[in-house]
Write a structure and sequence with these properties.
This protein is an alpha/beta fold. It has three domains: about 110 residues, Helix Hairpins; about 120 residues, 3-Layer(aba) Sandwich (Rossmann fold); about 55 residues, Alpha-Beta Plaits, CATH 3.30.70.1450. The protein is built from ten helices and twelve strands. It has a six-stranded parallel sheet with strand order 5-4-3-6-7-8, sandwiched between helices. A four-stranded antiparallel sheet has the order 9-12-10-11, with helices on one face. Helix 7 links the parallel strand 6 and strand 7. The chain is rod-shaped, with a radius of gyration of 33 Å. The chain starts with 16 loop residues before the first helix and ends with a strand.
Length: about 325
């Protein structure tokens, strides 16, 4: 379904328009049967131009031509009671019958066509987006960090099995897909082959491993960042194809330990991890003006330099002067 706001929801199990029409046909059939029974039980109030008492077939015939507004006139209500029933009951049923088969059916098909058009347009234009698998606490925090770092909401796609979670993601303008991110057909709907990164924020470690394996199968080169609860599962996740693994339990434990004796350290870490104000951690390449300078000469505080696939700490003498393809991890101030 598509929400009324900016977010797009690409439901994993899409309801067929024929199924929607089928439901309305069932309702229309119930209306028809009810009309047949009303006419049949009041058959003495009707006259058949061909003579004879109305049979069940005649009642069905009359109900059909009446509800469809064909009205051949060969069977007509003649008593005051039968005519009153036609006015008060059968006429409203006729209107309901037409609304069900024509009005709502056309509305459903039109809405469906409009939805499919928007989905096709989204798929044709989306690229270099981030796929976030899981919209729990970790997934929402990751999305806030992405937005604070400059990623547009239109370039974030959320996958979660909970329709309520996807509705929440839609409410802030994100694209959402209802489904299990461990299934290849669900991930294909994210256009994962065109994604610039994937965040695996599942609530269970085994689920995170399965999602990572599926992502890596569909897109061998996309960078995958995954979270696990237990540190012992981190190596398994890396073997499954994750490029970066965040261990939530051990990281939280280290911060708890630091907070006991060094609470200001924890406050500084929280500041670094909260993008948009105070101090921010950032990764960037060396600018042309910085080539040949020492790491300590930069305005930003350099924490590490990655060169030729090797990461050097800020105090490593091997850094020397900065080179054109160096990648820096820096601390920068927002104020």
């Amino acid at each position: 379904m598509l929400s009324d706001h900016g977010g797009v929801q690409l439901a994993h199990t899409e309801a067929s328009p024929f199924r929607q029409v089928g439901k309305r046909v069932v309702i229309a059939t119930v209306v028809l049967v009810a009309t047949v029974l009303i006419v049949y039980f009041d058959r003495d109030g009707y006259r058949d131009n061909n003579g004879g008492e109305l049979s069940l077939l005649d009642a069905t015939y009359y109900a059909t031509v009446s509800l469809s507004t064909t009205g051949y006139g060969d069977i007509t209500p003649v008593t005051a009671g039968a005519r009153l029933v036609n006015i008060l009951i059968i006429t409203p049923l006729r209107v309901l019958f037409l609304l069900i088969l024509i009005g709502t059916t056309l509305e459903a098909l039109t809405a469906r066509s409009r939805e499919e058009f928007r989905v096709r347009r989204w798929r044709s234009s989306v690229r270099q987006h981030v796929v976030v698998c899981g919209y729990g606490t970790k997934g929402r925090s990751a999305i806030r960090a992405l937005i604070a770092a400059g990623t547009d909401k239109e370039h974030i796609v959320v996958v979660d099995p909970s329709p309520a979670a996807i509705d929440e993601a839609n409410s802030i303008g994100l694209t959402g897909i209802v489904g299990d991110a461990g299934r290849a057909d669900v991930l294909r709907r994210t256009s994962i082959e065109k994604a610039r990164a994937v965040v695996v924020a599942a609530n269970r470690d085994d689920t995170a491993v399965l999602i990572t394996l599926t992502v890596r199968q569909l897109s061998p080169t996309v960078p995958i960042t995954a979270s696990v609860r237990e540190e012992e599962n981190a190596s398994l996740l890396r073997q499954s194809g994750a490029d970066s693994v965040i261990t939530s339990s051990s990281t939280s434990g280290r911060l708890l330990g630091l907070a006991t004796d060094a609470p200001r350290v924890v406050a500084a870490v929280e500041d670094l991890l909260t993008a948009g104000h105070g101090l921010d951690l950032a990764q960037r390449t060396v600018t042309s003006a910085e080539v040949g300078m020492g790491a300590r000469q930069l305005r930003d505080v350099v924490l590490s330099v990655t060169r030729g696939g090797r990461t050097l700490r800020f105090d490593d003498p091997a850094i020397g002067t900065l080179q054109s393809e160096d990648v820096l991890v820096v601390v920068r101030s927002n104020g």
